[in-house]
Amino acid sequence: MKKKHFVLGHLIKAISAFLIRVPIGLGGCTLILLLIHLPAWAIEPIKDSNNLDALIDMSLEELVEVEISLATGSPKDIRSAPAVATVITAKDIERIGATTLDEALETVAGLHVGVSTLSRTDSVYSIRGIQTGFNPQTLMLIDGIPLSILFTGGRPSTFRLPVESISRIEVIRGPGSAIYGADAFSGVINIITKNGREINGFTTGGRYGSFNSYDAWLQHGENYMGWDVALSLEYQQSDGDRGRIVDADLQTMLDGKLGTASLAPGPLERDYKILNTNLKATKGNWVIGFWSWLQNDAGEGAGIGQALDPVGTENVDLYLADVSYRNDELVRDWDLGLRLYYLYNKNDSKFMLFPPGATLPIGSNGNFDFFTPNVPVVTFTDGAFGAPIIIDKQSSIDFTAFYSGFNKHYLRIGAGYKLLKEDTEERKNYGPGVLDGTEGAVDGTLTDVTDTKYVFMGNQSRKLWFISLQDEWSLARRWELTAGVRYDAYSDFGHSINPRAALVWETRNDLNTKLLYGRAFRPPSFSELYLQNNPTAVGNENLDPETIETLELVFDYKPTSHLRTILSLFYYDVEGLIDFVEDPGGTKTAQNYKNQKGHGLEVELDWDITNKLSLRSNFAYQRSKDKDSGEITPDAPEMQFYINPYWTFLPDWSVDSQFYWIAGRHRAAADTRPDIKDYSLVNLTLRRKNIDKHWDMAFAIRNLFDENIREPSDGKIPNDYPMKGRNLWAEVRYKF
């Protein structure tokens, strides 16, 4: 692929494009938008329990000096970290009333949480306009371990994560492959879980709200025989908002030609039951962890084929076990670390692709064929059903070494090996190996096609080894250069080399300036390569990896101890973005379908106005397009605005308010529907703490004005996906 060259002019272009495109009516807000920032700052794991306890009540001045490790793999205070970094602490999560990871991430500048157009109700983390259906371009880590499922390359299916066990969330916008390898493409999200000292005793609580939603949790943190032990159990359940109705679906479009069967109008199926368990034990140089995320009977959203499915279920069993060892005294000037982990993920689903009574054209290969004339039709008396099972088994060993023996240099060396396997099973009443178009009618009996050529994907495996090198060089007073490169070698498609460089200048005591460059890649997922015998999408073994190069210029200005502002300018160039693209015959095939470029800016503000009133806010603008056709990137918002006042109006009483504005979401060029409607959202959280020294209570209203929020579909759900309407919850906590 051609090497792209980056120049400072692209950053100037980003500012110019923004000033030209912002409506005149917003002119009076321009000064405010140049002062905007978002929740929170981050920390590297803190060994000193006194420091950890003090973190809870840190001021803004103290928080900006704590450390983040996501940017380099080594501790670095966030203002001088060679990255555009945001951290959301447990305190931030509590004060805004976030109950899931997605609600916390929506507060990050330039990150919008949307809905996949390909799968169930999976979340899409659109960062700076980079997104595809399965959203594998954003790497998610839990305690530094990737949560990339091999089939999609992204997060586990229908992944919803409770937040009570989270100590902090570190977010980097921009590429991170030089440290983290594959999938650290548009950004990296690292979820750090609480240790025993942070929990410090027993904490329990419950929450009940609209849509028959309730949460419950129990946490315990204690020292046993020198081991710092943390145990967290969380349960969440909801029926979803059944009042937001889908007017029509894919089956509605087929009804006029093939007979009425659609279940629309009807609600999206967003019900779920989740058990999240985390166990962490720390002693000296050792950390042992076990995490499980179990989901039962989750709804299939708009349906796997974009036809409403009230009976389908999604069950996920996810287990992660890891052991790590780190020693900075074994060898002089060396800090050595070793980590082993094993991840097991089983996705067991049963979905209704089309509803009972659907009469559908079936080709001689057994697949649905809506484009060939005079194809025989088959009536599915009970509906068209599939029941695939996907099992991931991932084993990894990673080695890191930090060397501090050189003057003004701090070296990081990393190496590792991964063995990745994915097994599949499938039962269905349609498709190759089951039908040939002569049946006339079929019932709901499923045929097992596991271990045959008719399965949706055969068993697959992939081996990976990597080596990385990074140097943090204090090249002059107030100047630091971080340069690194990582080499990844894959058994199935080749190798990738990804460099990075970051120059950080402490321009003044109150101003840090950063110039950042990074390259990242994403290998094709197993579904993109090997999916077959599927009525909606098929793979392509001739795919190339996606690549991106990004240039960023950052000004981090802290004029007083109570005010911090950040301006981030960016330009990126993507080659070979992969997505499932519709063929003339109606099937979607994985293709390197687009080369994309984009530019924009993010402005952030964090202001402690008084000791009782604080304000956090951010504004993000991005303009991205297809480099060949000039088409504006569809679905991703061009502008986002967030403002979050927090007021402690009486001792132990507080109110937190959030305002979101999402705007500028365009349709694809071939989509004749009007552009997606802009929306605003208001949330309120009232909290009372330290009731009789042990109790906390809270009450929240979400979507206060009952805004009709829609996330874009691909057109098979014509009026897009309706999001939650106004909803309430009440919460009680007890600590002892």
In words, what does this structure look like?
There is one protein chain. The strands form seven sheets. The protein has a 22-stranded antiparallel barrel. Strands 3-8-9-6-7 form a five-stranded mixed beta sheet. The protein has one domain: TonB-dependent receptor, beta-barrel domain (Maltoporin, Chain A), CATH 2.40.170.20. The protein has 736 residues and is mostly beta strands. A hairpin with a 7-residue loop joins strand 4 and strand 5. The longest helix is centred in the N-terminal third of the chain and has 14 residues. It is globular, with a radius of gyration of 25 Å. It is built from ten helices and 40 strands.
* Beta strands, count: 40
Number of helices: 10
CATH architecture: Beta Barrel
- State the domain count: 1
CATH superfamily descriptor: TonB-dependent receptor, beta-barrel domain
What is the typical, i.e. mean, pLDDT? 88
Helix % is under 10%
CATH topology (fold) name: Maltoporin, Chain A
Largest sheet: 22 strands, antiparallel, barrel
Query: What structural class do you assign from the helix and strand content?
Result: mainly beta
Shape type: globular
Query: What's the CATH first level?
Result: Mainly Beta
